[in-house]
Amino acid sequence: MLTEEIVPSLQGAIPSALATVDDKGVPNISYISQVFYVDDNHVALSNQFFNKSMRNIKTNGIATVNIVRPDNLNSWYLSLQYTETRTEGELYENMKMQLEAIASMTGMEDVFRLKAAEIFEVKKVEEVLIS
Amino acid sequence: MAVKLNSFVREVLDSPCFGFVGTVDESSQPVMTRGFGFKYDEALATFTMYTFHKDFQRLIDHLSEVAKVSATITNATDFKTVQFKGTYRNHYKTPDNEMIYAEKCNSKQAEIMKMFGLSNEVFANWKYSPSVAIVMNVHEMFDQTPKINTGNKIN
Amino acid sequence: MEEASDKLLEVIEQQKNVVKIIREVSSKVNTSLDLNVIFKSTFELLDRYFLFNHIMILLIDDVAPDQLVVASSHGYDGKGIGATVPIGKGVIGIVAKNKKLLRMSNVQQNLNYVKTALKQDQNSIELPGISYCASQLAVPLLNHKDLVGVISIESPTIGLFDKKDEDLLQMIGVQIGIAINNAHQFNIIEATNVQLQDLNENLELKVVERTEKLASQKKQIEDQHSLLEKQHCSLEGEQLKTRKMLDKIETLFGQQVSKEVAKELVTNEGESQSKAYDVTVMFLDIRDFTVFADSKAPEEVASFQNIVFGELLNIVRKHKGITNQILGDGIMAVFGAPVKSDTHIQNAVAAGFSILAKIEELVSEGKIPPIRLGIGLHTGKVIGGNIGNVFRKQYSLTGSTVIIASRIEQLNKVYKSQFLVSAQVHQEIECGKNEAIALGEVELKGIGQPVGIYKLA
Q1: Is residue B140 within 8 Å of B86, Cβ to Cβ?
Q2: Given a contact as 3+ CB pairs under 8 Å, which chains touch A?
Q3: Measured in Å, how far apart are chain B's first and last C-alpha atoms?
Q4: Which residues in chain C are closer than 8 Å to B118, comparing Cβ atoms?
Q5: pTM for this one?
Q6: CA distance A7 to chain C (A)
Q7: Regarding the domain with residue range C198-455, which homologous superfamily does it belong to in the CATH classification?
Q8: For chain A, which has fewer Cβ within 10 Å, the N-terminal or C-terminal residue?
C-alpha cells in the first residue's frame, strides 16, 4: 500500500491532518507533526496530545490522515484502522529517540515523553497531485 | 447564532495556516479536503474553505443538509490551532475576486514553507483553479493547539 | 519492460556508487592517523557525493566525558569549533546517548510544535548548528561498541535525507569512528610524550637554579661560620689551621677531588677572591631515569644510583676534574678549576669516553639495567668561587660556558646521541676527533650566537 513514492511523506517534513469521528458522527480534525512508517501496510502515530482524537480512535478504531511530500507537495489520504498500542520495540524506541531529541532542546525531556506508539493498518490510499 | 471571535481565533485566522475541512461518509469514515485559503464571516457565523479542484470532489459527494462538518486551521510556524464545528451550509465555484483573496492567503503559507526549504517552483506548480468554496455554519470553536489539555472549547 | 530495466540500471548505478564511496572512505580516511586529514577527507567526500555542505564532527570531550566538543566543521565558516553539546541534549546529544543514528526531516518545525505545546518562546539550551535546521542526520561514530563521537549533517531543506543516505552514513560512520579513535589515541600519546620531555628539561634547569639558590643561601650562613672559624684557627696557630683544613677538605671533597687537587686547594687557600678560569664544563644525564625509577622498588633504585654515581665521581676525579653538583639524574663536573690545568679539555673528553665505556661494562655484566647517557662538553671562561671557605661542598661557577654545556647536553635527546661537544672543544682534541660527526651550527636556548656541535658518540 505504501509505495516508495509515498514514503518520503512519512518523515514529518510537513505536518499532517488527522481526522476521526466520535460516536455521534461528528468529525474531529487535528494536526500531528508526523505519521511514522512501520511497514508497507502500517503506520504509527505518537500518542501525546490528541485527547479527542485518541478517544475517538479507541472507540471505533477509525482514522484518516493526509500526508504530504515535501519536495513536490503531492499528498495522499490514508484511511486507517487501529490495530495495537506499542510501548516497546524498535519502532517505539526510534519514535521515542526523535521525541527525546526535540524535547531535550527545550529542557523538557522528562515532561515531554512518548507515551505509546499507536499502530494502524492502511486500508485505502487516495492520491492527490497538485499539478 | 453569531459566534463572536476572540483574540486567539483572530490571531490564528490572520496567520499563515494549513487548513482542512471534513465530514463523515456513509460508512462512518472521516473524509476531508485541503483548503488553500479560508475566511470567517462574523455576521453570518460561517467559515469558508477554498478547496482546489483535484481534492474537493471527494468531499462534495458527502455533503448534504444534515452533514456534520468540521474545519481546522493551524499556524504553520507555531502550531496554534482552531477547530470549527458545525453543519454544512453550501458550496459554490470560487469566483475570481474570491480567488485573489484565497491566493493571497495561500501566499502567506508559501512564504513560510520556503523558509522550511520548500522551493518556489513547487508552489508555482500548484494549480488551484478550478476551485470550490465550501461554507459551513459554525456552532462551536475549539482551541486545538497541541498541549496537555488540548481541545478546550472557546467561548 | 524498458521501465523495469531502466529501474534496474538505476539500482545498479546506485550500488556502484555506494561501493565507490566506501572504497574512497577506506583509502582516504582509514589510512591516516592525522585527525585533520581524517576530518578534511570526510567533509570532502560527503560534500562531493551527497552535496552535504553543513557537517560537524564532534568528539567526546577528554576533560568532561559527559559532553561532546565540536572538533571540526565544514560549511559553518569556521564557527562552532570548540562548542559543546551535552550528551542527551538535542539530536546530536541523543544520538550520542543512544549510540544509534537519527534522521529527522523537520527539526525546526518539530521543535516549534513542542515549544508551542509547552508554551515556550525560546530554546532553553543553546546548541551548535545552523540557525534554521530542517533536515538533520546524525550518526554515532563508534569504535566497536564505544562512542568516539558523532557526525552531524544539517540542511535547511526539508526532508533532504532518505533511508539510503542513512544506511550509507551508518557504514561510513563505523569506518570514521575507528579511524578517529586511532588518530585520537596517537595524538594523546604524542602530547604526553612532549609533556614528559618538557617536564624533564624543566626539571634539570630547575634543579640547577635551586641548587644555585641554596648555595648562595648557604654562603651567608657559612660566611658567619668561617669568620668564627678563622678567629678560632688564628688562636691555635698556623700549622693547626693548615692541618684542620686539609682534613676537612679531604672529608668534604675526598669523594669528589683527587688528593692532588685537594693538596692544591689547601696550598692556594689564601686566595680570597673569585678568579677567572679557563675550564671545560661537563653535564651528564642518565636518560629516562625517572621512567626507570618508577618501575623499580626504592631499594633497587638506590642500589643503582650508588653503583652508577660512584663510578661517575670516580672517573671524574681520576681525570682531575671535580664533581661540582649531583643533579638528580646526572652530574655537573668541571675540569680546570679550582686547580688550573693546561689539559682540561683533553681531560674532560677522556673522562667522557671513560664514563661511556664503564657504563657499557656495567650493563654487559648485568650490574645495572641498560641505560643510555647524555654527555655535553663546552670550554671557555668561568668565574670560580672562593675555595677558602672549607664548608662549601661546591664551587660557584658563573659564565655562559656553564649554560652552553648544559644546553649541549640536552641536544643529545634531539640527535639521539650520547656525547656531544662544542666546536671549541672539538678543535683541541685528538682522541676521537676524526670519528666525530659535525652537526653544524645550532641555536641554543638563551644563547645569542649559534654554537658548532660535534657528535663524539
Answers
A1: yes
A2: B, C
A3: 13
A4: 158
A5: 0.59
A6: 9
A7: Nucleotide cyclase, GGDEF domain (3.30.70.1230)
A8: C
Task: Report CB contact under 8 Å: C114, A97.
Answer: no
Domains and CATH numbers, chain A: 7-128 (2.30.110.10)
Partner-chain contact B146 C119, CB within 8 Å: no
Given this structure, which CATH class describes domain C2-188? alpha beta
Q: How would you write the pLDDT of chain C (457 residues) with one tens digit per residue?
A: 677 788 777 777 777 777 787 788 777 777 777 888 888 888 888 888 777 778 999 999 888 889 999 988 888 877 778 888 999 998 999 999 999 999 888 887 777 777 777 776 666 667 778 777 778 899 999 887 888 899 999 887 777 787 788 888 888 888 888 888 888 777 778 888 888 888 887 887 888 888 888 888 888 777 877 776 776 556 556 556 556 666 655 555 444 555 555 565 556 554 445 678 899 999 998 887 666 666 777 777 777 888 888 899 889 989 999 887 776 678 889 999 878 889 999 999 999 999 999 999 998 998 888 889 999 999 999 887 644 444 434 456 777 888 889 889 989 989 999 999 999 999 998 767 778 899 999 988 777 889 999 999 9
Q: How many helices (H) and strands (E) does chain B have?
A: 4, 7
Q: Which long-range contacts (CB under 8 A, 24 or more apart) does A52-58 make?
A: A52/A20, A52/A22, A52/A28, A52/B150, A52/B151, A53/A18, A53/A20, A53/A28, A54/A118, A55/A22, A56/A20, A56/A21, A56/A22, A56/A28, A57/A20, A57/A82, A57/A118, A58/A82
Using beta carbons and an 8 Å cutoff, which residues of C are at the interface with A? Answer: 88-91, 93-95, 98, 100, 102-107, 109-111, 113-115, 117-118, 120, 123-125, 127, 134, 158-159, 162-163
Task: Look at the domain B7-154 and name its fold.
Answer: Pnp Oxidase; Chain A (2.30.110)
Q: Where are the domains of chain C?
A: 2-188, 198-455
- How many residue pairs from chains B and C have C-beta atoms closer than 8 A? 35
Task: State the ipTM, two decimals.
Answer: 0.90
Scanning every residue of chain A, which has its alpha carbon at the shortest distance from the alpha carbon of C108?
A102
Residues 6+ apart with CB under 8 A from C410: C201, C204, C285, C374, C376
Task: Check CB contact under 8 Å for A73 and B118.
Answer: yes
